[in-house]
Amino acid sequence: MEVLQGNIVNIFEDSIFYGELIIEDGRIFTIKNLGAEKAGESYYLPGFVDAHIHIESSMLTPASFGRVALCHGTVGSVSDPHEIANVLGIKGVNYMIDNATQTPFKVTFGAPSCVPATTFETAGAVIDAEGIRELLRNPKIGYLAEMMNYPGVIFEDEEVLKKLAIAKEMGKPIDGHAPGVIGEDAQKYFAQGITTDHECFTESEALEKLKLGVKILIREGSAAKNFEALIPLAKEWSHEMMFCSDDKHPDELLKDHINALVARAIQNGIPLFDALRMASLNPVKHYGLDIGLLQEGDPADFIEVKDLKNFRVLSTYINGDKVAENGKSLLPEPRNRVLNNFSTTKISSSAIKVLTTDSDSKINVIKVNEGQLVTDSFQVIPLTEGREVISDTEQDILKLVVYNRYTKAEPAVAFIHGFGLKNGAIASSVAHDSHNIIAVGTDDNAITEAINLVVREKGGISAVSEEEMGVIGLPVAGLMSEKNAETIAADYEQIDAFSKSTIGSTLAAPFMSLSFMALLVIPQLKLSDKGLFDGGSFQFKPLFETQNNS
């Protein structure tokens, strides 16, 4: 038995009192009210939940991720393992589940619904409807993960509908993914039993979906940041909203997590208890999580914070055990087994040359938007040397390459605006969702050198300048490191700084932004290993446009 005293926050009665927690056998045995809230005393409240995240994007395994998240008061997560599933299929999902058993951090995994995400790219695996049924039978898997193939839902693709039917038959929540889908299409999509969306990037879009009965997740990750756009809705709709990070790089995870979003929500005028419920009660109830909410009889999952303004976490408890204190984990380092699916070979600069036969032709260019996964596009007459189209650093129109990691194949090449590189290149095997190698750079030699560093490591992120180069190996599926968070975060901070100060990227998170430039299910223009793809019309698009059809 353990007895703790302090100010206790009751999110069910919107009350705070000085009290006593009695913990026995991993549960809250008794909560005693000892009087009014006491100034100067710390506060006990329910732990936080990240309502949607791909743990792989932190470059950490679930066990390593959990050690850090617990330090920020996050006691659990709703985690979609579709990154590793696109590389290794069900075997990859089982790896995540097995690895997570090394930590008390409470991870609820989803069954990845879109492996591959589309038929317009090469992934390392396929999970069909029967694979979904197999996964959903696993008690460690609590829901059908985000249905990214929204055209397949809207146009009633047979295999997509089978997956949705299996989830409904088994009583599992179904996560949504419908960026910019509104009106009649949104009604068709959510009528299929899909209950959430974390892809809203405007207040009007989110409000329309809320009125359809959809739970809206406010996402604030390393690349996609929708907090400022959506938080005003929480003043009226907090009971239907949650917080998530979706994708979080390791250096940012070391700084904060959901605790920072709670603090920002309160600063934006959201009442304290509404913000706390968005970070705890709402995801626990929606997904049926085995996470306590500081009630008698609940699992003793709770946190102690210094105040209810900044939410600096003093200690975190899981099942009655203190697992983090003053920003330090009390858990042992996990052992991270390595597995992979990486079969390609090095590439030569001649393989990515682009030739034009028409001096009047324009090229379709992807335009990156800072802080968003949605891209725009435009057409421009390219810079050429003879018949060869080259990167134009003056106009910030750079060559973008996607190279198949699973088998030897010709690379796909396009052009992109918004990275701002002045020399060199960056590359990554983290390229949503099929995780082929993606690279952007100012010249062919630098691009292929960056790609070949990733090939050498059988997965990783790399950066190459005129005089220097660096690479971080990600041997676990080409997505994650076997190292601890502090090591990988320090390595990442160094290569991230190199990509900005030496190579010249103007983006806040160039590697995270690069990783989404192959994500075909997010409009507008993206690049897969098979070619340039228009996410609006959901079909391939030529690189060159003659003036007659531009």
Describe the structure.
The protein has two domains: 48-291, TIM Barrel (Alpha-Beta Barrel); 349-545, no CATH class. Helix 2 (82-88) packs across helix 3 and helix 4 runs parallel beside helix 6 (158-169). By secondary structure, the protein is α+β, with helices and mostly antiparallel strands. The chain is globular and about 80 Å long. The model has no long low-confidence stretch (mean pLDDT 96).
CATH superfamily of the largest domain: Metal-dependent hydrolases
CATH topology of the largest domain: TIM Barrel
Amount of beta strand: 25-35%
Helix percent band: 25-40%
Helix-strand blueprint:
Elements (H helix, E strand, L loop, with lengths): L1 E9 L4 E10 L2 E10 L6 E4 L1 E6 L8 H8 L4 E6 L2 H7 L1 H11 L5 E6 L17 H8 L4 E7 L2 H5 L3 H12 L4 E3 L6 H8 L5 E2 L5 H9 L3 E5 L7 H4 L3 H4 L3 E4 L5 H6 L2 H10 L4 H8 L1 H7 L14 E4 L7 E6 L2 E5 L2 E2 L24 E2 L6 E6 L8 E5 L3 E2 L2 E2 L7 E7 L8 E6 L7 E4 L8 E5 L2 H14 L2 E5 L4 E5 L11 H17 L8 H6 L9 E4 L2 E4 L4 E2 L3 E2 L5
Parallel strand pairs: 1-4, 5-6, 6-7, 7-8, 8-9, 10-11, 11-12, 18-23
Antiparallel strand pairs: 1-2, 2-3, 4-13, 13-14, 14-15, 15-16, 17-21, 18-19, 18-31, 20-21, 22-23, 22-25, 24-25, 24-26, 26-27, 28-29, 29-30
